[in-house]
Each structure stands twice: as C-alpha cells, then as structure tokens.
C-alpha cells in the first residue's frame, strides 16, 4: 500500500462518514413526506442507481457478478429487511425531531456489535471490553430512568444495524452487490405500497417538483457514501475505519443540539458521556497498535 493509496482511502473514508453525519439535514427537507413513503422511494431508487453504477463498473462481467445462490438470496432478503427497518427508524426519528436519539444509537452500535459477537459468534471479551459494556449499559439504563422509558429509538437503531452486520458477516457477497440484491428483493413491496396501498389508505399527496427530485435522489445519497466506504475499506486498516465511524454520529449530535435545538438534558449528558468513555476504552488498544504500526512500517 503506497502513501498515495492510503491518502485516497482516508479521503474516501472521511467523505463517507461526514456524508452520513450530515444526512439528517437531507431528510429534514422532506419531513412533510411520511417516513414509510420516503423509504419506499429510497429502496426503489437505490436499486436503480446501484444497477447503473454496477453496470458501468463491471461492464460485461455484470451478470456474473450479480449471480448468487438461492440460499444467499434468502439471507439477503433477511439482511435487507433489517437494513430497511434501520432506515425507516432513522428517517422517522429525524423527521420527528429526534436526531439526538439517532446519534446515540450509532454511538452504541460498536458496543452492540461486541455483544452480538459474544452471543452468536462465541467471541471472547477482554477485561477492557467487559468494563466498556458495563459502563455503556449502566449509563443507557440511567437515561431510560431519567426520561421515564427505555431509549427505544437509539436501541432499535443499534440493534437492527448490529444484526444486519451479523447476518451479512455470514455471506461471501461483495457489499455493493449485496446491497443491490437487498434493495431489489424489496422493490416489489415498495412499488405495491406506493401504487396501491398508499393511495387507497391516505389522502392524495401532492408533492412539488423539488420534493419529487429529493425522493429520487434519496437513492443516490444511499449509495454514494457506500461507494466511498468500500473504496476506503480496501485501502485502510479496520482499526482506522473503526475510529472514523465515530465522525458520523458526532456530526449528527452537533446538528441536533446546535442547529435544530433538540433538548440535551442531564440524562443525555450522562448517557453520552458514558458511551464516549466506553468507546474510548475499547478504542485504546487498537489506537496503540495503529500508532505502533505507523512508527514501525
């Protein structure tokens, strides 16, 4: 790996995580549209944009690259259902003025991944990971007590995305190919919803031209950061990718509090402080290894 390749990978990684961090602003622009309608459009247009991108990238190899087995399709349907559920919760929360909850959810996600690895993959935890999980769990419970109910949105986002990662880990399918199948398999339900269920069960929704274009490009904003992420993942270490992933929820956190004025209560301060401490604990050893490798190439 040359320094130039590393720098390109770092630029791509920064692009995708900064992009994801500012994503709530995009969905705020169409908050007058029901979240389920936004997701239906996102599924359809993401699949279409992905097909165009893959056709340009793969050319004659496209059909061979898209070939998967029946078992893989079933697993991709399950993983697709999980990631679409995650998108739906995220968009609904953003449009309901709860960006702070989504930020907390994506901060919790790495810790949920550790727990799922312990539960399903029989991975062993070291002492620092155990301490981190205990701190994160206790401060999250405190937030639930403070607000009078569990932080459902944050937990749902962290768990659905964690389960999505767990399911995809079992598949030997390239990320963008997998996402194409995940969205394509759910295109029919999305189309039926938009063409049949929605008009029959709601008042006619008349969107202006800007809204329609924003719905169309919701597919593009889905795949653009993923393309950047895939480019970065091939050129950066997993440890560095792990640190970069905290950029997105940090930006969302700042947007929620400083730009949209969401309430940042004492309970939120305790919860976020606990999560940040926990993330710092589990990141310490990978950071040391990364710095050591930098010092001794």
TrEMBL record:
EamA domain ranges (all copies): 8-139, 153-283
Main location: membrane
Pfam families on file: EamA
Keywords tagged on the record: Cell membrane, Membrane, Transmembrane, Transmembrane helix, Transport
Keyword Disulfide bond carried by entry: no
Keyword Transmembrane: yes
InterPro entries named in the record: EamA_dom, EmrE-like, RarD
Subcellular location: Cell membrane
Entry superkingdom: Bacteria
Topological type in the membrane: Multi-pass membrane protein
Transmembrane segments: 9-27, 33-53, 73-93, 99-121, 128-145, 151-167, 179-198, 210-233, 240-260, 266-284
Family named by the database record: Belongs to the EamA transporter family.
Entries under PANTHER family matching the protein: ACYL-MALONYL CONDENSING ENZYME-RELATED (PTHR22911), SOLUTE CARRIER FAMILY 35 MEMBER G2-RELATED (PTHR22911:SF137)
UniProt name for this protein: EamA family transporter RarD
Natural source organism: Marinicella sediminis
Organism placement in taxonomy: Bacteria, Pseudomonadati, Pseudomonadota, Gammaproteobacteria, Lysobacterales
